[in-house]
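FAQ

Q: What does a record look like?
A: Structure on top, sequence underneath. For example:
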């Protein structure tokens, strides 16, 4: 399967400007899961800006 990076970038909510995985969802998800995190697209805009991508932060955001 080919990565559709240009199409993915249209919906990418990552605000980390130096991210090398922007638009490459498979790599992004794999990277974050290996660090017990979730990617930016799982968080609200407000929560994403904190760069706290922990699963605990995700759960906390869901329970607000």
């Amino acid at each position: 399967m080919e990565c559709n990076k240009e199409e993915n970038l249209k919906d990418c909510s990552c605000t980390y400007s130096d991210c090398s995985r922007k638009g490459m969802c498979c790599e992004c998800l794999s990277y974050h899961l290996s660090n017990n995190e979730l990617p930016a697209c799982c968080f609200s805009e407000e929560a994403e800006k904190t760069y706290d991508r922990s699963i605990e932060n995700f759960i906390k955001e869901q329970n607000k």
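Q: Is there anything notable about this one?
A: The mean pLDDT is 93.
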